[in-house]
From TrEMBL, chains A, B:
Family classification: Belongs to the SIMIBI class G3E GTPase family. ArgK/MeaB subfamily.
Name of the protein this chain belongs to: LAO/AO transport system kinase
Gene Ontology molecular functions: GTP binding; GTPase activity; kinase activity
Gene3D superfamilies linked: 1.10.287.130, 1.20.5.170, P-loop containing nucleotide triphosphate hydrolases (3.40.50.300)
Classification via PANTHER family: METHYLMALONIC ACIDURIA TYPE A PROTEIN, MITOCHONDRIAL, METHYLMALONYL-COA MUTASE
Organism: Alkalitalea saponilacus
InterPro entries: GTPase_ArgK, P-loop_NTPase
UniProtKB keywords: Kinase, Transferase
Alphabetical list of SUPFAM superfamilies matching this protein: P-loop containing nucleoside triphosphate hydrolases (SSF52540)
Origin: domain of life: Bacteria
GO CC annotation: cytoplasm
Length: 371, 371
């Protein structure tokens, strides 16, 4: 759009009546050339395997984060490098306490993690907080997506917070998180929290990679439980009844008694540990140390009866098999011909026109012809 | 061996001093020729597909049993015929009540099944009792292996009792049982019990093929629960506290209250149904009708909110996918090279020398090179 004659032209034209645009002052460059140079220098360079491993073992958070990004990447080149890093880190991993934390949204999980995390860091711990939330792609990261949820913790040097890997299936997300545990442990984090939302399948995955599984509930056994998936309560090694503060204290105590009685009816755990219920207030940081005492007692008990090591070995095997099974299924279900055939055959199964097993047989026959 | 001269020779020889064998009376044939002829006539002839289907639809127990034997056979020829029979029976199946029954040995499962079964048959039901017990090959059929466990029921014309298929993996056993359900329904059985022992993985399989899942417990929440697998209680749509008789009545009532309170703490089921606890005495046949009332109430509720149909559709899909996944895994893990490699790599995973995921990758690479 032409708003007026250029100043230089009209400067010497006394008859000009139009809009006069004054010559402006030269604008400073929008980018500080010094800063740009520094930024370019700081830009991630390709690191060698040795640089990654040394950096992680030295506890360098930036390098740790970049290695985790490799784990999360789907590029084959990145995956290969990630596997080599993990292999080198494995001998330096394994000596942490791995704590799974679940609870429905609204139970105060992040406040709890912040309170417990700060308590442990005060006692000298190095804490990594990871998450498994396969829905995070859809929900744009419902948990740990926003570090500001744990403001104090995320500004503490001895805490490393990493949101859930967002891509893909539960199996994929779980694999990435489990590999990240190894790197975090090699980087010196002696306490690992794995957060998850107690509404999906992900609890089983988390349960299979932690030593202790903690369920966060709130007082009033009614509507608050609506979102918790059936079966999760039986997985718990401990329950924390959160928000036991102010007018809630009595209700929380009552809930504690009720849950204790319920847990008492469950068959004993394989660990020989009897799950316990404690109340706490994350906001007031009250009762938080009791909950950690429970975890430590559990660790002591399972390390002396050797369940701890046995469980870790079984978990390692579990993940090997899980990982194979996941891949076998992916290959099958991502096959284009199979996809089409499933779309065609599923309605017939639903309406009882062919049996589930005959449908499976036809699909497998089609698949075997191809590979 | 020659014991003496033949009678005919020595008859006319007065000087003979040796052993004389008297001519014997001709023995009657050890096989009654009439019976043998009848037996040969009755001996299973190869039936045609149409004969199988017509027989099943006419409620012929002998033909039904032979068809189930085809389902259980591992011969490809039998499998193919079985699938054709199932296909023809499918349109005539689906209209029964499918009840899963679990409980540890000692809870009185078979007495309970007998009591409930006779109660239903008296009311006009046709009952098929099936079982899933993948351990039965090893334990020589710990459940339903011996029909004499349910004497009165097994001598009732309207009851069909079939022990657990004994061969192979849980997936295989479960498939066979699920296919047997179809044939039983087509044969006019309007009530199907699937029995399982509450100690293994099989409950999930049973839970995925029944409408209502009943857990049998006994009074005294202590040692009796030792054997029940964690997680099973949360699957139950109802609990029967059995052996509520004699001096046990009060204990059973107390147990009922405790379990009710515990169930109340669980999150609601997807069906919208609130699981209930009832006491009963199978030996005295007391309280048995209450338990069936509970099942009928459940059926009414889930049929009116459409959970019933939705659940059945989901179950059909579940079995299609389960069946595929099972087969994919079988192909992999039964591969000879893979077996050797697993034996080699598992100790490395256990001792943390290589990561679970790297081990999985190597195994898959080896497998893909072959197929």
């Amino acid at each position: 759009m032409h708003l007026g004659k250029e100043h230089s032209h009209i400067e010497n034209d006394p008859n000009y009546k139009g809009l006069i645009v004054n010559k402006g002052v030269e604008q400073p460059p929008s980018v500080n050339p010094d800063a740009a140079r520094r930024f370019l220098q700081k830009r991630p360079q390709e690191l060698t395997l040795a640089q990654y491993v040394d950096g992680i073992l030295a506890g360098d958070i930036t390098i740790l984060s970049r290695a985790v990004t490799l784990i999360e990447s789907s590029l084959p080149k990145h995956q290969e490098l990630a596997q080599q890093i993990i292999l080198k880190c494995l001998p330096h991993s394994g000596s942490s306490v791995r704590l799974g934390i679940t609870g429905v949204p609204g139970a105060g999980k992040s406040t709890f993690i912040e309170a417990l995390g700060l308590h442990l860091i005060e006692k000298g711990a190095k804490l990594a907080v990871l998450a498994i939330d396969p829905s995070s792609e859809r929900s744009k990261g419902s948990i740990l997506g926003d570090k500001t949820r744990m403001e104090s913790l995320s500004s503490t040097p001895n805490a490393y917070i990493r949101p859930s890997p967002s891509a893909g299936s539960l199996g994929g997300v779980a694999r990435k998180t489990r590999e990240t545990i190894i790197l975090c442990e090699a980087a010196g984090y002696n306490t690992i929290f794995i957060e998850t939302v107690g509404v999906g399948q992900s609890e089983t995955a988390v349960h299979s990679m932690v030593d202790f599984f903690l369920l966060i509930l709130i007082a009033g056994a009614g509507d608050e439980l609506q979102g918790i998936k059936r079966g999760i309560m039986e997985m718990a090694d401990g329950i924390a009844v959160n928000k036991a503060d102010g007018q809630n204290i009595q209700k929380a105590q009552l809930a504690k008694t009720q849950y204790s009685n319920a847990l008492h009816l469950f068959p004993p755990t394989r660990s020989g540990w009897i799950p316990r219920v404690e109340t706490c207030s994350s906001i007031l940081s009250e009762g938080i140390s009791n909950i950690w005492d429970m975890v430590e007692e559990y660790m002591h008990k399972t390390k002396s009866n050797d369940f701890f090591n046995q469980n870790r070995r079984e978990q390692a095997q579990y993940w090997m098999y899980e990982s194979i099974n996941e891949k076998l299924k992916n290959n099958f279900y991502h096959n284009a011909l199979i996809k089409n055939k499933i779309a065609e055959i599923e309605p017939l199964v639903n309406s009882g026109q062919i049996s589930s097993f005959e449908a499976a047989r036809e699909l497998l026959e089609l698949y075997n012809k191809q590979v």
